[in-house]
Design goal:
By secondary structure, this protein is mainly alpha-helical. The protein has a domain at 67-272. 66% of the residues lie in helices and 2% in strands. The chain has 13 helices and 2 strands, in the order ββααααααααααααα. The protein has helices spanning 33-45, 62-91, 93-100, 103-116, 120-131, 135-145, 147-154, 158-173, 175-182, 190-199, 204-229, 231-242, 244-272; strands at 3-5, 13-15. The protein has a two-stranded antiparallel sheet. Helix 4 crosses helix 12, helix 5 crosses helix 11 and helix 6 runs antiparallel to helix 11. It is globular. It starts with a strand and ends in a 25-residue tail after the last helix.
């Protein structure tokens, strides 16, 4: 058998019986402690921002950090408001409606105004704007980071990712219809829709008007419902006010139990190697979807 050997001089040579010369050190070529140390050094030299759980794929700019901070702040705000909204509704439905923009408080405000009077137009306008006060944050995230932020907002579970995929497909075809659906009490993720509109390249001037108009329409409907119910709704609010502290305790216990359950699921997913990217509070991270800026009551 003739084997071709790469030339070391001017011409290549052919040999009939190649001789295999073993290395002086049998372990030569095998990874050793020095190689392991080199790999650890490379990992340690990796910059903090080069993390698959973060939406950017470059060294973050001031805009990146500012938007990321806003997303985290929205999530923290949403978590803090969960127990507080129970107190606000019992104390003053109009105040709750203007601060949170939630359905229950807006319906209660309509009944409250019918029975006791008040500037209904002011309540309507402020509650409508309060409902969408953080919508621009998600649009901005989509403009900055593209589809990377959609993966983070979608969360870890397969069901949530399928839901997000459906929302993105609908948003890309019918953006106004998708905005309309985010205000319904159905699992249609508002952050995903607003971020997808940003990913599509629509300007803020084109994004905000339909969001505000749909919010005005919905809040008008909830106020009208409360006005139609009238005195019975006020009686329920007054009864609720007597027990609102107990309700707040129940809400807090529920929040802690939910957090514990989610942490357990994350640990189980990490053990199976199926954990996905996570974000800051309100972005598929510790806050879940508490900071979506949409209706949650």
């Amino acid at each position: 058998m003739r084997i071709f050997v790469e030339p070391t001089g001017r011409d290549a040579e052919y040999v009939d019986d190649p001789v295999v010369v073993p290395p002086d050190n049998p372990a030569e070529g095998a990874p050793g402690p020095d190689d392991a140390a080199d790999s650890v050094t490379v990992a340690e030299d990796k910059p903090w921002w080069d993390d698959p759980s973060l939406p950017w794929r470059h060294k973050p700019t001031r805009a990146d950090l500012a938007c990321w901070a806003w997303i985290a702040a929205v999530g923290i705000y949403g978590i803090a408001l969960l127990p507080l909204r129970t107190i606000l509704i019992g104390w003053s439905p109009p105040a709750a409606a203007m601060i949170t923009g939630g359905r229950t408080s807006v319906v209660a405000t309509g009944a409250w105004v019918r029975v006791g009077g008040g500037p209904l137009i002011v309540y309507w306008l402020v509650a409508s704007l309060s409902l969408v006060k953080f919508s621009w944050v998600y649009w901005w995230a989509g403009r900055l980071w593209g589809t990377g932020i959609l993966d983070i907002f979608a969360g870890k579970s397969a069901r949530a990712r399928r839901r997000a995929d459906r929302a993105v497909r609908l948003t890309n075809r019918f953006a106004v219809l998708a905005i309309f659906l985010t205000f319904l009490p159905i699992p249609f993720p508002m952050p995903i829709v607003f971020a997808a509109i940003g990913v599509a390249g629509k300007s803020l001037a084109r994004f905000l008007p339909p969001v505000i108009i749909v919010s005005l329409l919905y809040q008008a409907g909830y106020l009208a419902l409360g006005w139609w119910i009238g005195e019975p709704a006020v009686a329920i609010v007054n009864l609720y006010a007597k027990y609102m502290w107990y309700v707040m305790v129940v809400v807090l216990v529920g929040m802690i139990a939910t957090w514990w359950w989610r942490q357990r699921q994350v640990r189980a997913a990490e053990a199976d190697g199926t954990a996905g990217p996570s974000g800051p509070a309100g972005a598929g991270g510790p806050a879940g979807t508490a900071g979506t800026g949409g209706q949650s009551d």
